[in-house]
Amino acid sequence: MAEAPRTVMELVTTLGTRIASFMFVWAIIRQYVPVELRRNLESYTHRLLDYFYPYIRISIHEFTGSHLKRSEAYTSVEAYLSTNSTKNAKRLKAEVGRDSNKVSLSMDEHERVADEFNGVQVWWLSSKVVSVSRAMSDYPEPEKRFYRLKFHKKHREMITETYLEHVLNKGKEIKRQNKQRRLYTNNSGSSIKYSGRRMWSHIVFEHPATFETLAMEPSKKQEIIEDLSTFSKSKDYYARIGKAWKRGYLLYGPPGTGKSTMIAAMANFLSYDIYDLELTAVKDNTELRMLLIGTTSKSIIVIEDIDCSLELTGQRKKKEEKPDKGKKEAGKEPKDEGGSKVTLSGLLNFIDGLWSASGGERIIVFTTNYVEKLDPALTRRGRMDKHVEMSYCSFEGFKVLAKNYLEVEDHPAFDSIQQLMTEALVTPADVAENLMHKTTTENADVCLSNLIRALNEAKDLKKNELEKLEAMSSDKQKEPVEVEAMLLDQPREPVEVEEMLPNKQAAEESEAVQVEGMLLDQ
Ligand SMILES: Nc1ncnc2c1ncn2[C@@H]1O[C@H](COP(=O)(O)OP(=O)(O)OP(=O)(O)O)[C@@H](O)[C@H]1O
Ligand SMILES: [Mg+2]
């Protein structure tokens, strides 16, 4: 037992003597051997050491070449190691990135962390080189920081081919998630210089909507979440089948059912930027193409209220002169004379992905209150891959809103609300409006009774409308005679006659044929 300390002492002594001898010889070499020879000697020594040294080292420098731009590989490794090092490293540094609002942690200089990939152990070291002239110069060079990866040489192939790619991809993903997202809008046509990004102006996108706070059928919500996450992981799949990596969503439903909220939730879920494309401000197809080329990868391109945007709805547009019930505000009506010359075919080309030869994932979302007004060419499958109906509020939807707005998951008023919701049509926006505190003294009980009152009102309204419709349909029995009389007085296009009929949809099926027949007879 007494042997052990003596052996250790001997070892230390021997090692000390060897180091001292080496230092002595090295000092003599430095002093008497010419620089050129010394360099050669160093190089041979490194080669000799490398021959016996079983590890390979790869350095990734912060700045490469003469550019003062940080290397993307370095920042990706930094981001990749941030998660690993927060768990394992003892010395960390905290920074807030230029495009981020979060504090990000990374390894401090000369810190080392281990990582494991497919059962193989690797080590990362963070280090820096300080230039000798740095301290004396008036314009000091920046410190040259780098990461060094060390692994056993028997894993060379796996590390260089698979692990490094994994690190860079993972790092890019983390960087993107930490980045502040942006909401871009297209500038007015006249001021556009056709130079990519200048066509878009942006603000920081900070919408708090998430799928968790979105009120909609749970199974439908889950389907969308899965669709989005499959899409975002399908780079290789899209490349294999030769399709542009994009996905089209058509969101339709009455105002206030959460179409815009859903877009924000999608952007937050995928950490994508949003490009809100105002088609009425786009001069022509060329400008549309330039705008789209100016969008970045991993973004959602949104065209809201597509039915109100330009002459995209084909022939039927001319027929829809009368604003329907619940139609958009005046400001959202299409701009016509002298405005945009974007055509349906221009837009279809864009959706078909001809422009997106530059690759990169993009989601295109159209929203509309009137899906039936859109040209079928615009909505056919393959162009708009997913059609999502955003509908009136269900009881499940209400429960999500009650949790968001009141932090209430159960309440005695829920039973009557559930019953009323089967009898009245209200949008999630209506429900949200009632659940929101109007004063500081309003509590959950008050908000829920407000909602019950609103539901009762909606129920009465629905009842009155039904009664009116019934009255109208009984009047309709006399109509063919009246219409025939009008037609004899003043012949019209069959379409216009259809417009005059109340309850147009039902009339289309049962009576349009009859009226057209009458016209032909004339
Ligand atoms: N499904 C929903 N889940 C959660 N909140 C909703 C939902 N639908 C509407 N809201 C609330 O109502 C407000 C209006 O909704 P939103 O703007 O998303 O409706 P929209 O369908 O886009 O309407 P429009 O057709 O008029 O553009 C939102 O700010 C949100 O607070
Ligand atoms: Mg909207």
From TrEMBL:
Q: Where is the composition biased (Basic and acidic residues)?
A: 318-339
Give the signal sequence positions.
none
> GO biological process annotations for this chain's record?
response to stress
According to the UniProt entry, the coiled-coil residues are 448-479
The record's listing under CDD domains reads: RecA-like_BCS1
Q: Which PROSITE patterns match?
A: AAA
Query: Gene3D superfamilies from the xrefs?
Result: 6.10.280.40, P-loop containing nucleotide triphosphate hydrolases (3.40.50.300)
Does this entry carry the keyword Acyltransferase? no
Going by the UniProt record, its keywords in alphabetical order are: ATP-binding, Coiled coil, Hydrolase, Magnesium, Membrane, Nucleotide-binding, Transmembrane, Transmembrane helix
Give one GO term, molecular function aspect: ATP binding
User: Which InterPro entries does its entry note?
Assistant: AAA+_ATPase, AAA_N_dom, At3g28540-like_C, ATPase_AAA_core, ATPase_AAA_CS, Mitochondrial_chaperone_BCS1, P-loop_NTPase
Keyword Transmembrane carried by entry:
yes
Region: Disordered, residue numbers: 314-340, 503-522
Domain (AAA+ ATPase) ranges: 245-394
- Reaction it catalyzes: ATP + H2O = ADP + phosphate + H(+)
Q: Which family does it belong to?
A: Belongs to the AAA ATPase family. BCS1 subfamily.
Protein's recorded name: AAA+ ATPase domain-containing protein
